Amino acid sequence: MGIFGKKTVKTNDKDNAKIKMVEVSQLRFDRDFKNVFQQENDKVAEIANDMRANGFDKSRPIIVTEAYIIVDGHSRFMAAKKAGLEKVPVIIKKFDSRDETIEYEYKMQLNSRRLTDGEYFAAFLKLDEIRRSNPNAQGSSDEAIGRQLNKSARQVCKMREIAKKADSTLLEKIQNGSISINKAHEMIKASEARKKARVVEDDSEEKTSNTGKGINSDSFKLEVLFVLSELEKGKKKSQILKDKRIARLKLGELKLDDEELSKISQRFGIA
């Protein structure tokens, strides 16, 4: 059982009343569907052989829109062409919007076949696009799309992050099946961790280069004493800050003798 109902769509008496025979040449693929899902050639060939021997199974008609675009039964359609059938049974289903049509197509595929990670990812992109264009959409998009794809919200979140951060090479690998969604997500997180580590390392090197070996406590104390002494002499803050001896933070540059240091320390209570 799938989240949308039965895995195979069988017709009942009410459906049979809607079945009509249509020429194969009138039917056509949905462009978006064809870009997402790949038909299995071996499966199509097997169905075609069965059709040559037994004809088209009318209990499983092809579902089409009013414009004869196939929304379910793509493999059966291809098999019918391969078997040389001129007409096939179809049920015409009415949809209120293009988005509703696409959602129905994806639902039927999820209930009838095992999708590859590439197909899941492509389906996520299309369903997310549909949801973002719907002003009436409510609740968490990850949870909503997860229910449609029969995936966890966490897995949908991974696909969303991949869509935002993956480069074209990684996306192509997902689509052609050479790498899984989970592996692609791991690679992105690992790359981010390496970049973060490099930034921290660069910041550390920059601080070291700006302060020599870092701020020495003795140097800092002497700096404070120097500033205080300059204030005692009546110099303004702007004058002191321009003093090159302050900028360099070097003990030898301050040129304060022991007596002066002692005097300043006592005057301002600095040990």
Describe the model.
With 271 residues, this protein is α+β, with helices and mostly antiparallel strands. It is built from 15 helices and four strands. The protein has a four-stranded mixed beta sheet with strand order 1-4-2-3. The radius of gyration is 36 Å and the shape is rod-shaped. The model is unreliable at 1-13 and 249-253 (pLDDT under 50).
Write the layout of secondary structure elements.
Layout: H1 13-16, E1 19-23, H2 31-36, H3 41-54, E2 62-64, E3 70-72, H4 74-83, E4 87-92, H5 98-112, H6 117-132, H7 141-149, H8 153-165, H9 168-175, H10 181-211, H11 217-232, H12 237-241, H13 244-248, H14 251-254, H15 258-268
Parallel strand pairs: 2-4
Antiparallel strand pairs: 1-4, 2-3
Helix pairs in contact: 3-4, 7-8, 8-10, 11-15
